[in-house]
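Hi Prof. W.,

I finally got the MFS transporter prediction working! I wasn't sure whether to trim anything, so I left the full sequence exactly as given:
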Amino acid sequence: MNEASHLTKRQEIALAIASGAVVANAYYIHPIIGEVADHFGVSHARIGLVPALNQIALALGIFLLLPLGDRLSNRRLATICVTGQTLSMVAMTLAQDFALFVAGSTLLGFFTITPYLLPAYASKRVAPERLGHVTALIASGAVLGILLARVGAGVLAEHFGWHTVYWIATGLMVAVTLMLPRIMEAREAGAVAHGSYPALLKSVFPIVRTHTEVLLSGAIQSLNFGQFVAMWLGLSLYLTSPEMGYGTDTVGYLAGIAAVSVFSTPRLGRWADRVGPRKARSMFALLQLCGICLLWPLGGSIITLLLPLFVTNLVGPGIDVTSRMTFLSLQPEVRTRLTTAYVVLMFSGAGLASFAGTATYDRFGWTGTCLLLVGMSLLLSALASYARRLGR
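And this is what came out:
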């Protein structure tokens, strides 16, 4: 890789912004889901099809489309996918019936692979010693996109109606669709896989068998992302229960604590560049375990809850970044397919944890949720320690 092919700092920031804008599309619905249900005259149970099918389609899109990043130009694939998202957003905004809105949201999820394609692309165009920093920067863009989507959608819908949210989101996607071809090279550094599309999909499995550590990293991130989802679902039910008596707006304000990771994750990534991803990940996991263990003893007050939430939001994205670093330094021609396996594992964990988190709270309350989270965090820490020993 020659020096001229390296990303500039402006391009790195632009990729982070694009990642944030694309990721945000799946989260606009969260604060306005009640208004959307009322608009289409459907029950709260039925409106749940919107985020559910979006996530299922996302997992399918990752498996079917993301491996193409090792065969096609990443610029071409990213442009196709963000264009598909833009058209899906238009369909959702203009939908006159619920079925079309659900279809648009489902297609939106299917084309949401760009945030997972961009780190693999960037890894081919940065110096090895800056891999952690740039990976963390793109991850921070995604976190900021989620944060702004949750806060911004609620405020805009309150004053201007929920359709305004999607019109603005569509405008952002048009801007991203125009921007990406300008900042991404048509042919990035590294070899490109050849062969038929079915053969490319099948090739994911032998590649993963050859690089088994991606399964370990994927399992770690599956637990990491899964406990994040289970924690916030349980916390939402707990805070709005008669026991605590808070409104849903309080849960939304607490979600704003995720802003800490926007500033901390790039620094954690740079530190991981110095000490190594496996050592950094094991230390992040232990710190996260400490935060998880504080949820129950400090759960009686919303003020004291800020401490464990701060700790978990501080290091959680760092575990994701360091897990990606373990395989994004491998051969360029297999990185996207390794990312496919990693992300599919991650969303599988989140799906299982979503069910486990709500079911545990329903049966055992906040205490049961805290015990579930401690168990998941202990397993995560054990796997991170095992991976560190393997990497020596």
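The chain has two domains: 1-194, 203-392. Does that look reasonable to you?

Thanks,
D.
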